Amino acid sequence: MGTNIEIKAKVKNPNDLHRLLEKCSDTACEVILQEDIFFRTAKGRLKLRVSASDHSELIYYERENSPGPKRSKYLASRCTDPAPLRTLLATALGIRGVVRKRRWLYSINHTRIHVDDVEGLGPFVEIEVVLNEGQTLEDGETVADEIMKKLDIHKADLVEEAYIDLLERNTTCFS
User: Largest alpha-carbon pair distance within the chain?
Assistant: First the structure.
């Protein structure tokens, strides 16, 4: 299983964040349209990520809902034809919900930074520090904290839950 340290935060001014990231990023920004179909599971989260670029992945991950840098353990497998896989998983497990977003992908060293405009939720930023062999969780947390400072992300902006959880909560608030 791969491991990374993640933070998610609500974004007040996406334009300012994009300007900061353009200065800090090691690579050119990539814009990706994604649809994440979440399936019901006994533990963790299982999603089929379908991107407009014909890049699809089945991703299972375990992550606690807590503010601040948190460990995420994950497995991912690429797939070339997501439709039959979606039908199979929907039949076997049931669909929990769907998250649609426009994602701007940046990178700083071995850290992925996503600025997401999530349908029904608005703008967020995610920092994913990919841990290399020999790196500790504390090493990843230190990197996440440093990037948060560079990007002017405050602890009050941090979000505990996954997008699917936030969407479910919003739906139950209005039903």
Answer: 48
30 - beta bridge partners?
105
Cα–Cα distance measured from residue 171 to residue 173, given in angstroms and rounded to the nearest whole number: 5
Render pLDDT for 77-108 as a digit per residue (tens, 0 to 9).
999 889 999 999 999 999 999 999 999 999 99
153 Cβ contact list (under 8 Å, min separation 6): 7, 9, 125, 127, 147
The token pair that represents 79 in the structure block: 């797939």
Q: Characterize 60-96 residue by residue with b for buried, 16 or more Cβ atoms within 10 angstroms of its Cβ, and e for exposed.
A: bbebeeeeebbbbebeeeebeebeebbeebeeeeeeb
> What global pTM score does this model have?
0.90
Task: Give the DSSP per-residue string, 139-164.
Answer: HHHHHHHHHHHHTT--GGGB--S-HH
Is the Cβ–Cβ distance between 96 and 40 less than 8 Å?
Answer: yes
